[in-house]
Sequence to fold (369 residues):
Amino acid sequence: MSDGSDATNVMLFGQEESLHQQVLASFPLCDMTKEDLTQNPQFCKLLAALTQHVDKTGLTVPLKTELEKVEQKLQNQKRQWLRSESLYRGLQEMIQDHCVRKHQATDPPDQNTFYETLQRCLLVAKGVRQLDPSSTTNQDQPLVLGLTPQQVMELMPAKTNVQRMKPVLLGQLEKHLKEKCLSLLSYYQPEWEKESESLKTNKLLHVSVQLGKEKKEAETLKETCRENTVLLQRQTQLYLSELIKCIHLLQSVILDHKLKVQTDLDRKKLDYFEGKCELVLQKIKTEMVKLQLDTYTTDTISAHRKIREKLELELKSSKEEQQAAEVKLSSFKILGGEFEVLANEYCRLRQEIDIRKWALKELSHYKKK
Fold:
């Protein structure tokens, strides 16, 4: 029974892993990790269901189809605009090249007439295009300088010059564009510059295909780089989260080890200081004994002992006299306040007697002299 349940758990775990990988691959722009999907299984299922209706950029299938149509239409319009713009720029470059050549050398009159007619046609066409209101401009806007397209069209060169220009224009334009294409080919592949013109023309036909392939490769590399960037960001976040966990674990281990070591260290420090204090005390006692031995001899010590015994006897007799006096004083206090007055008077008389005895003694001593 346990083997069957373990196999079921392994299968479910494998399905969850594949589901997580599918969701992460379907939404590369979302800042999610596998832990987020594991902690929110219902949200993971919702994203897995959304993968059937949206693409990697988050657009729905109908909106994606409509967007592709609009992009295709926009590409066609861009292509048309680029075609007309390329022709216009090419004609402008032809006119500029003619102006440069005209200052360097003398061209035939028919060439001057051709380029003057071309330049005038371009100027008139540009003016008519700016004056001609389209659906994107305001129909009621004022005219530039009061001119109308019909008035500008009157400035066209003579029809004969235009008719002579048209057959020559295609050849000249084709020649100019071919020279530009060959210069582009030389810039794209400098090693082909020494090839013959026919070989260059043949290779020029394949440049667009090769450029398209390189563009697709660049886009593929760009997409791969973007996916690698997203993957790197996820791995960086995962690495940082794991690193933070390791740091917390290491801090807890260091704290526990530090507490244990600190207790042993404190106990050893206490033992050390106790021993040191005991040693200092023994040294002090030794110094005191040494000082006494250096200061006092044997005779001095015996004399001090006799003096001490005599002083102790005198102190003992003084204490006995003090106790007897205190007993007499306590007996006198029992007699009351009248005896205290008599005692004070007795003391005063004794002091006067002592003073007079001292005075008589001093007087008799003076008479003897």
Summary: The two ends are 142 Å apart (CA to CA). Residues 1-14 have pLDDT under 50 and may be disordered.
